[in-house]
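Example S7 (C-alpha cells).
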C-alpha cells in the first residue's frame, strides 16, 4: 500500500485514466464482459472488475445478463453496458462549444458575466459535496478529506493530507481544464467553493489549467496558542524587557588589583597631563 499522500494521489489519477479507457472501450465496442475488457487493456480481470465496480457506483456502467450467451454450466454471461451518464462523460467536443459560449458571454457582459456562469455551473457541485462534508464534525483538514472523497466521485481524482501549516487538497484531474485555461474565473469560483465547504479561507497554489501537474489548494490550520501573526511587530523570543543578569564567562580569571604607589593625588583639572615621568635636564 502506498503511504505518502502524493503516491496515493498518483494511484487515483491512474485509476481515473484506466476507467476512462474502460468507458471508451464500451463506447467503441459495445457491451463486454470483464474478461474481454481485461484482454483489451492488458490487465487482470480482477483489476478490471474493481474499476467496473467503481464506475457502476457512479452510474456510468451497469451489468446486465445477455440473452443467448452462456458461460460455465449454463449461466448467462454478464456484460457491462455504458449508461447515459457514462456516455455524457465523452464531452470533448463540448469544450469548443463551451469556449464559444463563454467568449460570447465575455464579449457581451464582461468578466463578471463569465463569473456568474461559473458560479451557476459549480452550484450543483457545491450542493452535492456539502452533504458529505456536513457529516464531518472536525477540523478543516478533516472536512477537506471528506471533500476530497466527494470530488473524486465527481471525477476530480482528489486527495487531502495534513501538513505542518494545516492541510492540502490536491486535484489530480480537472474536467474543465481546457476551458479554465482561457477563463480563470472557473478556477477562482472553484477556490471560493472549496473555502466555503471546508469552513475557512483557502489559497490556490497551483492549477492544471495553468500548466501545473496538480491543482493544489492550501488550507491553513488553526493558530497555535501563544503565537502572534507575522508582521505584528512583537518579539516572540522575549518574555519581557528585563535583561538577564550578567554571568561570569567560564574559565575567565578574575582581574588582579594592582596597588598604587604613594604619590600625589590625581589632578581634577581638565588640563591634559602627561603621565610619563620627565627626565631632568
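Recovered sequence:
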Amino acid at each position: 500500500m502506498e503511504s505518502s499522500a502524493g503516491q496515493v494521489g498518483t494511484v487515483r489519477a491512474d485509476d481515473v485514466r484506466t476507467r476512462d479507457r474502460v468507458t471508451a472501450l464500451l463506447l467503441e465496442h459495445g457491451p463486454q464482459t470483464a474478461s474481454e475488457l481485461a484482454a483489451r487493456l492488458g490487465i487482470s480481470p480482477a483489476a478490471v472488475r474493481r474499476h467496473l465496480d467503481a464506475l457502476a457506483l457512479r452510474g456510468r456502467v451497469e451489468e446486465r445478463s445477455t440473452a443467448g450467451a452462456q458461460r460455465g454450466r449454463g449461466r448467462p454471461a454478464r456484460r457491462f453496458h455504458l449508461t447515459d451518464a457514462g456516455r455524457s462523460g465523452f464531452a470533448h467536443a463540448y469544450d469548443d462549444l463551451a469556449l464559444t459560449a463563454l467568449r460570447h458571454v465575455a464579449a457581451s457582459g464582461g468578466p463578471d458575466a463569465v463569473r456568474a456562469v461559473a458560479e451557476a455551473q459549480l452550484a450543483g457541485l457545491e450542493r452535492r459535496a456539502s452533504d458529505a462534508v456536513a457529516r464531518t464534525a472536525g477540523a478543516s483538514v478533516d472536512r477537506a478529506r471528506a471533500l476530497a472523497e466527494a470530488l473524486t466521485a465527481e471525477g476530480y481524482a482528489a486527495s487531502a493530507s495534513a501538513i505542518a501549516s494545516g492541510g492540502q487538497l490536491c486535484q489530480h484531474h480537472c474536467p474543465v481544464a481546457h476551458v479554465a485555461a482561457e477563463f480563470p474565473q472557473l478556477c477562482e469560483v472553484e477556490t471560493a467553493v472549496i473555502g466555503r465547504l471546508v469552513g475557512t479561507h483557502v489559497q490556490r497554489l497551483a492549477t492544471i489549467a495553468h500548466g501545473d501537474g496538480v491543482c493544489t489548494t492550501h488550507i491553513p490550520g488553526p493558530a497555535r496558542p501563544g503565537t502572534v501573526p507575522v508582521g505584528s511587530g512583537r518579539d516572540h523570543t522575549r518574555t519581557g524587557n528585563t535583561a538577564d543578569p550578567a554571568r561570569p564567562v567560564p574559565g575567565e580569571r578574575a582581574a588582579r588589583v594592582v596597588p598604587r604607589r604613594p604619590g600625589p593625588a590625581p589632578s581634577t583639572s581638565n588640563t591634559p597631563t602627561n603621565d610619563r615621568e620627565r627626565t631632568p635636564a
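Notes on this example. The radius of gyration is 36 Å.
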